[in-house]
């Protein structure tokens, strides 16, 4: 299972080429997002009127409650995103 982060999903919803390429690479993998990621997406979606887009995208993903493991992964993703040229990071759970 691949845990997707908010930055990647925003890039995907914005149809940025790098995100679309990464999405094609992980297409066959099962995907999940944390409930915190879902919360963050809906905050932006209300402003951009993309609520339906997010609801449709999330139909194919497992929504999981954050725990210690997710908190550690989120911290790692945040650090990695700051040190790379791209925010497109996905990690197996």
Write the layout of secondary structure elements.
Blueprint: E1 2-4, H1 6-13, H2 17-25, E2 31-34, H3 35-48, H4 51-58, E3 62-64, H5 68-83, E4 90-92
Parallel strand pairs: 1-2, 2-3
Antiparallel strand pairs: 1-4
Helix pairs in contact: 1-2, 3-4
What features would you highlight for this structure?
single chain; 93 residues; Rossmann fold; four-stranded mixed beta sheet; 5 helices; 4 strands; 59% helix; 14% strand
Task: Give a structural overview.
The chain has 93 residues and is an alpha/beta fold. The protein has one domain: Rossmann fold, CATH 3.40.50.1010. Helices cover 59% and strands 14% of the residues. The protein is built from five helices and four strands. The protein has helices at residues 6-13, 17-25, 35-48, 51-58, 68-83, and strands at residues 2-4, 31-34, 62-64, 90-92. The protein has a four-stranded mixed beta sheet. α1 (6-13) packs across α2 (17-25) and α3 runs antiparallel to α4. It is globular and about 30 Å long. It starts with a strand and ends with a strand. The mean pLDDT is 82.
């Amino acid at each position: 299972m691949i845990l997707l982060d908010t930055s990647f999903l925003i890039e995907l919803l914005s149809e940025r080429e790098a995100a679309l390429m990464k999405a094609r690479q992980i297409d066959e993998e099962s995907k999940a997002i944390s409930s915190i990621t879902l919360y963050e997406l809906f905050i932006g979606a209300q402003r951009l009127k993309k609520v339906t887009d997010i609801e449709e995208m999330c139909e194919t993903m497992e929504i999981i409650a954050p725990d210690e493991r997710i908190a550690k992964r989120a911290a790692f993703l945040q650090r990695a995103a700051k040190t790379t040229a791209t925010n497109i990071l996905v990690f197996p759970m």
